[in-house]
Amino acid sequence: MTQDPNPHEALASIKAAREGLAQPIDYPIGYDLLYGAICGLLVAGPGAPQPWSFILLPLAMAGLALMVVSWRKTYGWWVGGYSPKRARWVAFGLAAVFVGLILLSLYGRGAGPDWLFLVAGGIGFAAAIAGSRLWMHVWRKELADGLK
Amino acid sequence: MSAVPVFDPVIHAPGRLQICAILSGLDDAEFAMIRDRIGVSDSVLSKHLKQLEEAGYVALAKAPFDGRQRTWISLTPAGRKAFAAHVAELQRLAAMTAPAPMGQGFSG
Prior knowledge:
The complex is a heterodimer of chains A (148) and B (108). Chain A is an all-alpha fold and 148 residues long. Chain A has five helices and one strand; from the N terminus they run αααβαα. Chain A has one domain. The relative contact order of chain A is 0.17. Chain B has one domain: Winged helix-like DNA-binding domain superfamily/Winged helix DNA-binding domain (Arc Repressor Mutant, subunit A, Orthogonal Bundle). Helix content of chain B is 52%, strand content 18%. Chain B contains five helices and three strands. Strand 1 of chain A pairs antiparallel with strand 1 of chain B.
């Protein structure tokens, strides 16, 4: 590109830079499984018997923090779930599912059955993996479509 | 982007344009990642970042990682606004200079 790019060159340069970010990232499947497990613990924790309900929450929060640190260290960038304009709606949806699952977990603890927290955790595990993959897909599309 | 179109000479230089384009899609990025993406030396990137920082468009933060200080860069709200306005202006100019579709430029 020239030192003073014309509008077409400049827009092409911006598009290429943004699309470069949107390239598939080959992060290991273990990352998905770990994220799913952490989210499963987050939603199951409140309904788990004592003392597990007190132990699981800080454990899951620490796990999430470590995952963020690991991602930043490996890839050299970070984007929060709620930052992108379109993809944030996937994050809001996932958060709503998690709130519902936490309530389900608490309901099981109060009214039974006792094992309902395990169901909530299992659904949370699957929802987190599906939601994170969907979020990544929407975000990549948002980056590529950003200049249209 | 629906910003009011404003041409920004600070952003328009090729290197700074790419830096802003990368940062516009992220919360923040590490110095080395940006350097590798746009293919410039450390000193050239530092110079671009200094100009963007002086304009108030980027914020630099140093954080220790593996015993080394690493620099993380993010667009400020003013930088995001200026970049969106610059892109809008580029799109406006590009639309004005777009070649006429085949068969519509000459009526005989």
